[in-house]
Amino acid sequence: MYGIRHPRQRQPFGPLERLQAEFERGGLHSLPTSAAPTLEVWSEGDDLRLRALIPGVAPDDIEISVQGDVLTLGGGVRDAEPRAGDRWLRRERANGSFTRTLQLPFAIDADGVKARLANGVLELELPRSAAEKPRRIPVQHS
User: In degrees rounded to 5, what are phi and psi of residue 66?
Assistant: First the structure.
C-alpha cells in the first residue's frame, strides 16, 4: 500500500505531547533543580539595584558580600519535612544552599550597600564607588 501511512506517522509531535502529558500528571520531576534565586538587576541613576526572589529564606540565612565590582549572594532554602504518614504528590520548589556571583559593570561602595527582605523578595541598593563615578574635569584657559 503505497501512499498510505500509519496514523501515528502523521503526528510528528506525538512523543513530545506524551512527555508533556506525563509531566503534567506529576509523573516526571523537572525544574527547578537548584535553589538559586532568580535575579533582576537594573541601574538607577549612578547606582545599581538588585532584586532576588528567595521565598522561605530567613534574613539570618543570607550572606551578601561585595568586593570591587563582584557581588556574591548566598544562602539556603530549607523545606519543611513531611510529617509521618504524609506523602509528597508534587515538589517543585528546590531546596538547599545556593551561591550566585555577579560581575557588575562598575565597582560598588561596599559600606553604602543596603539590603531589605520582605515577603521573600530581597532588594539591594548598590551605590557606585566614588572612585568609579564620572567626574567633570574643568578646562582652564591658558
Answer: -130, 130
